[in-house]
Amino acid sequence: MSRRELAALVEEATVDTYDEHEEMSALFAAVEENLAVPFSTSVLGVEVTVSGVDLSRDGRVVALCTRGGFRQAIGLLDLPLPDPAPDGAEWVEAYRHYWAQ
């Protein structure tokens, strides 16, 4: 997606927000509502299943990843998306665009 399209998604999600905390909550809600889970991806060469997203205690959006009996939250900024990307991945890219500004 182009920078303009990503900015439009960020604006769509954050239109009624008043501060950075509300913007983060709105972007989290957009990712949570639109990202099709579960999906598989590779993290450091290991295949994991992304079963959902959550907000960490420090306010970052994280992907909830599992492999076997292990679970780990990985920051959405650091999560490689598979090819092809799951439905709703544009919201992950919009989240990344927000933080790159």
Distance between the termini: 16 Å
Rg: 13 Å
> Strand content of the residues, in percent?
25-35%
Mean pLDDT across all amino acids: 95
List low-pLDDT spans: none
Helix percentage: 25-40%
* Overall spatial form: globular
**Quaternary status:** single chain
Widest beta sheet: strand line-up:
1-2-3-4
Number of alpha- plus pi-helical segments: 3
Largest sheet: 4 strands, antiparallel
**Count of DSSP strands:** 4
The secondary structure category is alpha+beta
Reading the helices and strands in chain order gives HHEEEEH
Question: Explain this structure to me?
Answer:
There is one protein chain. With 101 residues, the chain is an alpha+beta fold. It has 3 helices and 4 strands, in the order ααββββα. It has a 4-stranded antiparallel sheet with strand order 1-2-3-4. The longest helix is centred in the N-terminal third of the chain and has 15 residues, at 20-34. The model has no long low-confidence stretch (mean pLDDT 95).
